[in-house]
Sequence to fold (70 residues):
Amino acid sequence: ALARILISRFIRSPQLGHEMFGNGKIFEVRLVEWIVAAQQHNRLRRFDIKLGAKQVIAMLEGFCVWPQLI
Fold:
């Protein structure tokens, strides 16, 4: 229910959403940095980092965000 209220407020005032969440790329940038560091320390195998970051974000959104909005 809270997610629906927030979304309705963000639709009415996009600036409010931007102030709360900032640029959505920040999380992706930090995730890419984390993946690079993990690969450098041989904690993760080599793969397309940007694609991997987008897949992780899509899984998080699909599991945590969208079900709350429905």
